[in-house]
Description:
2 copies of one chain form a homodimer.
Chain A: H1 8-25, H2 30-42, H3 52-67, H4 70-82, H5 90-105, E1 109-121, E2 125-131, E3 141-143, E4 145-147, E5 159-166, H6 169-174, E6 184-187, H7 193-197, H8 201-220, E7 226-230, E8 256-259, H9 261-273, E9 277-282, E10 285-299, E11 304-314, H10 324-344, E12 350-357, H11 365-373, E13 381-386, E14 394-400, H12 404-408, H13 410-415, E15 423-426, H14 435-439, E16 444-449, H15 454-457, H16 470-489
Helix pairs in contact in A: 3-16, 4-10, 10-16
Amino acid sequence: MPFSFDFQTRSALIAFLLLLAAASSLAQQPQAASTLQQITSELEPSNGVWTAQQIAAMGRLRDAALRDAYATTELQHLTDNIGPRLSGSPQAQQAVEYVAAEMRALGAEVQMEKTTVPHWVRGVETGQLVSWPGMGPDATQKIVLTALGGSVATPAEGLTAEVIVVDSLKDLNALSPDAVKGKILLFNEHFDKRLAAQGLGFEAYGQAVAYRAGAPALGASRGAAAVLVRSVGGAEYRLPHTGMTEYDPQLTKIPAASVTAEDADLLVHLTSQGHVRMKLTLTPQTLPRADSYNVIADWKGSEHPEQVVIVSGHLDSWDLGTGAIDDGAGVAVAMQAIHLLSQSGIHPRRTIRFVAWMAEEEGSDGAQTYLAEHSGDIANHVGAIESDSGAGHPTGIYLAGKPELQAWLHPISQVLEPIGATQLVISKETGADISGLTDKGVPSFAPLQDGRFYFNYHHTAADTFDKIDAHELNENSAVMTVLAYALADSPQPAPR
Amino acid sequence: MPFSFDFQTRSALIAFLLLLAAASSLAQQPQAASTLQQITSELEPSNGVWTAQQIAAMGRLRDAALRDAYATTELQHLTDNIGPRLSGSPQAQQAVEYVAAEMRALGAEVQMEKTTVPHWVRGVETGQLVSWPGMGPDATQKIVLTALGGSVATPAEGLTAEVIVVDSLKDLNALSPDAVKGKILLFNEHFDKRLAAQGLGFEAYGQAVAYRAGAPALGASRGAAAVLVRSVGGAEYRLPHTGMTEYDPQLTKIPAASVTAEDADLLVHLTSQGHVRMKLTLTPQTLPRADSYNVIADWKGSEHPEQVVIVSGHLDSWDLGTGAIDDGAGVAVAMQAIHLLSQSGIHPRRTIRFVAWMAEEEGSDGAQTYLAEHSGDIANHVGAIESDSGAGHPTGIYLAGKPELQAWLHPISQVLEPIGATQLVISKETGADISGLTDKGVPSFAPLQDGRFYFNYHHTAADTFDKIDAHELNENSAVMTVLAYALADSPQPAPR
């Protein structure tokens, strides 16, 4: 999960872009034409920052990115050979060592930055209806669910209670204070698939994920025995979506799981007819925090090696799938940036720093460690890029920072025009792991991607290597590499 | 699964229809126009079988079908309130009693036809890689799988063996005779999703399902310890597809499971790199055969009550989902035919016989019993309809019987024109449960449906009520009801 919950700015900008598109289709009309002239003059072809030689080098990096099999091969190794990489797991450690070795092999200067991470381990997770309206003798019904990340366990033999369904906090507040006491409370907030189908998956995610995070506190405050949420995601294949939940330290920690959209619908239907009782068994364990690492690999700058541009993704993943779209893809794309520089022998003025962040899924502990360890050095961070929204076809770049960045980067969008990645969209957020840097004024960036399908697989067992289109993965690598080169080789750092 | 494996005839006919469509688009050209005239004259608007009053009654039944909430409500009860209905299970018995009571409530004459059925019960089913190329210390990898119907169990503690992958029987035959001895053999035959996307899902199914059925014998004949098949279906959501498998009584019965497409790809990739060992645990039980029933409900004919037209679907389902598309939908559509006759008070000349078949998924025992019980009465069966391909928008009718049936039914296709169900496609097969009647010369029929999505859900946990579009369900009910009325009220029975 790359973004937190404030989407107003991005929404406004997307709306603005849609308006631009509409304006473009009205180009025959005099009024619209004058608007277009204004836009064109704002974003003029060359802004004098980069030389023709530099622009040509960017074109070569872009083309090399599209031909390079490196990211795909690395991603398949991370997902197939190493597998799921939950923070604190043996595979997460294996991935740290593997990526460090690969970066060393490319000639980068590698540093293992120690951090501590949550160590939560999934256990048994089953749901079964034990009574419901219309139930026949000896009948059973399975409820497909998965524990939310960080959930406490039920008793090992399970807990059995009545299920109460609410569609929203408003519905919950309308119930009598004791209505959910001792019961299993399901928040049936729907993921808006129509928004996602229009490419606004993060908008849909932002709307629904608040319940995933807040459910245990909302339930515990009313005495619920456990909470369920409708899966936050777009799949219709009886597939539960996991993800981190949160506890209020002042309240009882109650077990929390995510049911599939189908099972939520079933519970809605049956509870509308009468009393429904369910047995819920979750046996996850929260072990002592574990040692782990951010993998940092510097491709040293030729003029200002102390100044850095970060290219990054997060190396940890959820445990149900193998973390291909979230976020092996981001790590692989960032690895490929170093591979392309190594292959071409280019050393830009400033250092390009690869980072494979640890524990993004469970609180971004790696990123917090980085921020603390580099607190005296923020001024030397001239830019930070993270890819953590999958590997769909990129249509441009999200940027967080001064509005001037948009015009400053215009030549880059032209270099990326052959792959269709021309949009430069100002956003408050670019990536969770670089949000601390963003907050301290470091210009930050993310590929802007076709996200129509991301939330079908996100945080599920189906987040596997086959979901990756190798060409689109390379398009993202082209975006990250060209942008990183531009930030690292400009005469002056990007405006901040 | 409604059809067996011979699809040549249907394919040829679909190709013919595509040619017709192409011809239609060339209608401006003289040559094509003359072809069209020929077709039009063959299928003239009225063939004199039914009166204008009867045609008007069909139109009223069609319109009433589209407005009726009965099928949807019944289907939701079967799937949500009763749940999975595996042969021999308590829920299958509950469904028998429920459907019989519903048919009695409509005024039909109900008969419970006793049959015996397989009683196979799914157990634990897990797959785990225990060693593979690139495996790190303490690493684990889950293989998502489900036992095939009828599979024997592994030892309770599982069996661990090397995995060998073959893409086809040809590949298997190319291996040395001992190559799979003691090993777990995966047949990686792909379900052709491109065929399915073109509406030829049954073609794709027919190609791949032979391995699902034949795998245990192929494996056992070479000494394999167990067999796996790549799931026969189109889903890309880490969803295993179950379905019946077969044993050769001359050979050792070895455990058989279906892995997801993703897990098959993983095994292909890892075995291409070196040795892969897997622990497979399946604990299904094959219990003694159980008593069960076909539910038969006669809506008595006014002139020839001894002559019958069957409307049907199968009541049993696989156990992973709740059997909505396979085949609660078929049962509900057939129930609605009786509901519409009951509501309208129409009693056609002949009896319309509702049948909810039992045990289609595990060998069609119910249908075999029916055939044996009614062997002296086949001549009185003037037609049989089964819906067992989901509830997608119907584009016409499959028919098995004399070629004259096509012209004979032309007025029916005109009545169904407002819902787009105009195609009359001759097929060798219509439905598994009515194939015995077909073989004995009874004209048989099935709705011809948009099957692009059926095999995404077929035999999986995701075959649930939400997959049903209520309007399309009603369109199918319109097809079945109008056709049944036409067969039951024609002056003479359909040509046979």
